[in-house]
Amino acid sequence: MLLTLTNAPRDYAWGSTTLLAELQGRTPSGAPEAEVWFGDHPGDPAELPDGRTLDEVTGGSLPYLLKLLAAGAPLSIQVHPTRAQAREGYARESALDPADPARNYRDDNHKPELIVALSDTFEALSGLRPVSQTLRLLASFPESAGVAELRRRLGAGTSTDAEAEALRDTIGWLLSGRARAAVADIVAGLAATDAEGFDDALDAIRGIARRNPADPGVVVALLMNFVVLRPGEAIFLRAGLLHAYVSGLGVEIMAASDNVLRGGLTSKHIDVDELLAIVDTRPAEVPVQRRGGAATVYDVPVPDFALRRLEPAGDQTVTVTGPAIVLATAGEVAVSGADARRLPIPVGEAVFATADETRLTLHGHGEVFIAEPGRDGTGR
Fold first, then answer.
1. Which distant-in-sequence residues (6+ apart) come within 8 Å of 130 by Cβ?
2. 45-66 tens-digit pLDDT
3. Domain Phosphomannose isomerase type I catalytic spans what residues (predicted)?
4. 359 flagged as catalytic
5. C-alpha angle with apex 282: 212 to 129, nearest 5 degrees?
6. Which sequence spans correspond to the domains of the chain?
7. Do residues 237 and 79 make contact, with C-beta atoms less than 8 angstroms apart?
8. Active-site annotation holder among 262, 290, 291, 375
9. DSSP type of residue 32
10. What distance lies between CA 212 and its chain's CA centroid?
11. Long-range contacts of 204-212 (CB under 8 A, 24+ apart)
12. Cβ-contact 96, 271 below 8 angstroms
């Protein structure tokens, strides 16, 4: 069975006022539009034409959540737990009210993510760069007590373990409230900084600082890798990896969870001790997964979800292991299943295929993303 899915954009403050409307070919609402959820997550299940929501069909059993994400401003710096950490944390906080803002764990699941760029550029911060590179960046800053203290805390980076420990201590110091004067010094120095090889990263962080001038997350961002994705390119964000989306439109898929530990650029609760307990501070680049022509299968090393991007041209039949979601992001595309009935998929909307649908035929021309459970998980 195939079912058309729609949903209203979520109005988070960081959302873009134009990107989702432009994708869907409609007049902007004038309000921030951040995400459109295509899934059965209880926070905002997708809507069906008959007035039901998708969770009424699935019983809330989908292991993944597929989204359109439009960032007009930087999201909070954040990290997600492993499944074991989520189970332990959820049990520990079981006595807290679910709406308590100090609650870290909303469920007992992990939340690995994959983001694929749709806009010409999609900017993100992902993982921590080697200390030696950050020290080279800091060498271009005007000398101040705050810059000197940050360099001292980072140390010399003599080994990966030493770097990881120095970065963990530095992040804890920045978020503890004890680094306000140093943060002010470092943010003030951004305007006069010109470090070769860091132009794009510095432009992005200056923009972040204008929005969050006293937030210690600005300096945490200085410690992170800056990544620019082109259309069809993706990064996978594993448990423990510090990250933040900065700007752009993308397709995001994740395990069905709402567990977020924040590390700056937010007015929401930050539990520094819990953040430091789950963040992986070993420096490393996060590899960019390149677009593979008319068909790209993204590398996802978890069983919760799989995602592929296709550019149908005419009729194209694909095998799926459902329950699957087909999301259209360009062109004019329809999909049919076992009964051969064609369902058009307007750009920015989706179709859900129940688990008994194993072969789908795409009709027309455009771009679609197909989400399904991952290999060796509840799917294939």
1. 157, 163, 283
2. 999 999 999 999 999 999 999 9
3. 2-130
4. no
5. 50
6. 7-125+229-278, 130-213, 295-372
7. no
8. 262
9. -
10. 20
11. 204/123, 204/125, 204/246, 204/247, 207/74, 207/246, 208/74, 208/246, 208/265, 211/73, 211/74, 212/74, 212/264, 212/265
12. no
Helix (H, G, I), strand (E, B) or coil at 31: coil
Cβ-contact 339, 272 below 8 angstroms = no
Convert 339-349 to b/e letters by CB count within 10 Å (16 or more is b).
Answer: eeeebebebbb
pLDDT at res. 159:
86
Q: Model confidence over 143-196: pLDDT tens digits?
A: 999 999 999 999 977 788 999 999 999 999 999 999 999 999 999 999 989 899
Tell me which H or E stretch contains 372.
strand 359-372
Q: How far is Cα 224 from Cα 263, in angstroms, rounded to an integer? A: 12
**Domain 7-125+229-278, CATH homologous superfamily name and number:** Jelly Rolls (2.60.120.10)
305's CB contacts (< 8 A; 6+ apart) are: 63, 64, 114, 253, 254, 255, 371, 372, 373, 374, 377
Task: Give the pair of three-digit tokens for residue 40.
Answer: 């059965």
Superfamily of domain 295-372: Jelly Rolls (2.60.120.10)
Closest by CA position to 330, among listed 315, 317, 313: 313
Structure tokens that stand for 134 in this block:
């950050």
Contact call for residues 127 and 78 (beta carbons, < 8 A): no
